[in-house]
Each structure stands twice: as structure tokens, then as C-alpha cells.
Amino acid sequence: MSTQTIERPDLDERTEQDDDTPKVFHYVKKDRIAESAVMGTHVVALCGEIFPVTKSPKPGSPVCEKCKKVYAKLKK
């Protein structure tokens, strides 16, 4: 009897977003960010999306287009 080695291809079996990394980052009131990160409470973004803060954006991270538009109107 002989043994044969079968190589398994390296497959990343995770789904597209297995981790909690958001696809885009949203604009949120500053005073709510720390509270959400520590307490796990939900925040409301300028675009209306509700979520808990789990990650902080890095420079160059994608930003929600709806939040950008609302923020631009608020600055005027």
C-alpha cells in the first residue's frame, strides 16, 4: 500500500466581512464616540445609520458619501 500526499490549495474561507471592520466610516458627534467605544452604546451618524463604535478610522479610510454631504451643508 502506498500513501499519496494531496496538496490542499490555500483558500481563504472567510466571508467578505468576517471581522467587524466597517466598509466605510461615518461622521458621528465627537462626544458620543468614546462613550460608544467604552460602553457599547449605539451612535447615530449624520446619514442616519445607527451602530456601535468598534474601530477608529485611519488616514485615507473610506468615508460615507451621505455623511460627507450632510457635513458639507452643516459647515456653510
Q: What this model shows, in words?
A:
- It contains two helices and two strands; from the N terminus they run αββα.
- Strand 1 (42-44) and strand 2 form a beta hairpin.
- It has a domain at 30-75.
- The protein is α+β, with helices and mostly antiparallel strands.
- It is elongated.
- The termini are far apart.
- It has a two-stranded antiparallel ribbon with strand order 1-2.
- The model has no long low-confidence stretch (mean pLDDT 83).
Summarize the structure.
This protein is α+β, with helices and mostly antiparallel strands and 76 residues long.
Compile the SSE list and pairings:
Elements: H1 30-39, E1 42-44, E2 50-52, H2 65-75
Antiparallel strand pairs: 1-2
Number of helical segments? 2
> What shape does the CA trace take?
elongated
List low-confidence stretches: none
Number of strands: 2
Secondary-structure element sequence? HEEH
β-sheet strand percentage: 5-15%
- The average pLDDT value, as a whole number, equals 83
Q: What percent of the residues sit in helical stretches (DSSP H or I)?
A: 25-40%
Largest sheet: 2 strands, antiparallel
